[in-house]
Amino acid sequence: MTSPETTDLSQIKEEYSVEGGLDVEEESESDTSPPEIDRPWKPEQIRVNSKQFSLRNALDMIDDGTLELAPDFQRGRVWKLGQKSRLIESVLLQIPLPAFYFAEDTDGAMRVVDGLQRLSTIHDFVRGGEKSGFALKGVEYLKTVVEGARFEDLPAPWKRRINNAQIMAHVIDPTTPPDVMYDIFKRINTGGTPLNAQEIRHCMSNKRSRNILKRMTSTDEFNRATKWRNHIRMNDREMALRFAGFWLLGVDGYAKYSAMDPFLQHTTTLLDDERAVPTDRAEQLMADFDRAMKNARLLFGEHAFRKWPLGGNGKNPINRALFETWSIVLAGYAPEDLTRRRDAIVEAARRLMTSDYTYLEAITASTGGLRRVKYRFEEAAKAAEAGK
After folding, report:
1. Between the CA atoms of 265, 268, 269 and 272, what dihedral angle is there, to the nearest 10 degrees?
2. Domain range spanning residue 216?
3. Rounded distance, CA 6 to CA 48, Å?
């Protein structure tokens, strides 16, 4: 095999955010690779209505559950106290807030898909009380008036000013197809620190898929294999979702999409539908995932799901393509079998990451391409049979 000319496979870059290193390898895309998928949406499929709410009305809907703030969404709540305080100050100054986006369910309930940080901050300040509320600190224009004050400390006119403030929300109609809804949000997701793909899916999904992914990534086995727990940018949930997608649909099912985003969006929709994935099947999915995590740790130790070529012992970031392939492959083996053949399997896997440039390309660049997905699954399956 010849070395690729356009991709430097020796460079391993870790993804970073404002929170620091994320312990996940950055996926690179070739400049010459085609777009992931063509989406010729029909205009009539896009249904977005604009509605006006008072902040009091919006906070009441949050409290009674008709407006959901996407529980377990960690990255959306990392604003520092000064940022939160200046947002509240803006409301007190009667500065209009940017528009929000909500996604409506068929039962009329809504989920916040853009503006989560702002609404969470306002709800915490107004309704949080001493437990989760906060005192204003670092305001700029009302320092002598509200600095250090909690909501209950404000004079009645100031409280009314917050409660009566009007917000504009663009509500995505439930008849809008899920893929169209996902694309709409990707287009308008530009403010602050833009959400990554899994954070978008989390905001737009229902409780069932969120609970399944949370259970998958909250186990001791997952934590031992990855050293992740409650990943700040939801990369843990994305890894679990990738496993679920290939476990449910296989590589042949992926071929229908030949791109990761629509494949994972469809998987989310399946997990949300109990008819598509009954409870007993969801339980089997989670059990197989747990077995895969145990087996990966058993074989590769601290290098599980990380590039580990022969001659190198540094601990690299987790690689998404390695995670999805090896987790699926290892889910089908008994630990006793793998223990007996451990040295042979590890040798075969590391050799792939050392001298098979086609395999290295398949786990490094343009990893969503169908040919590369098929190749890395085939080669991981062969390596797992080593020593027999």
Report:
1. -160
2. 14-26+195-383
3. 42
CA 106: distance to chain centroid? 24
Beta strands at 100-104 and 166-172: parallel, antiparallel or unpaired: parallel
Query: Each residue of 47-93: pLDDT tens digit?
Result: 889 999 999 999 999 999 999 886 565 444 567 899 999 999 999 99
Rounded CA gap, 46 and 117, in Å? 25
**pTM over the 0.85 mark:** no
E strand intervals along the chain: 14-17, 20-25, 48-54, 67-68, 100-104, 110-114, 166-172
- 171 and 237: one domain? no
Please give the Cα distance from 162 to 165 (Å, whole number).
Answer: 5
Nearest partner of 267 among 295, 227, 290, 239, judged by Cα: 239
Three-class SS of residue 52?
A: strand
Question: Is 97 found in the same domain as 150?
Answer: yes
Residue 35: CA count within 13 A, CB half-sphere:
3
Distance of CA 205 to the CA centre of its chain: 11
Other Cβ atoms within 10 Å of 64 Cβ, number:
9
Q: What is the pLDDT of residue 301?
A: 96
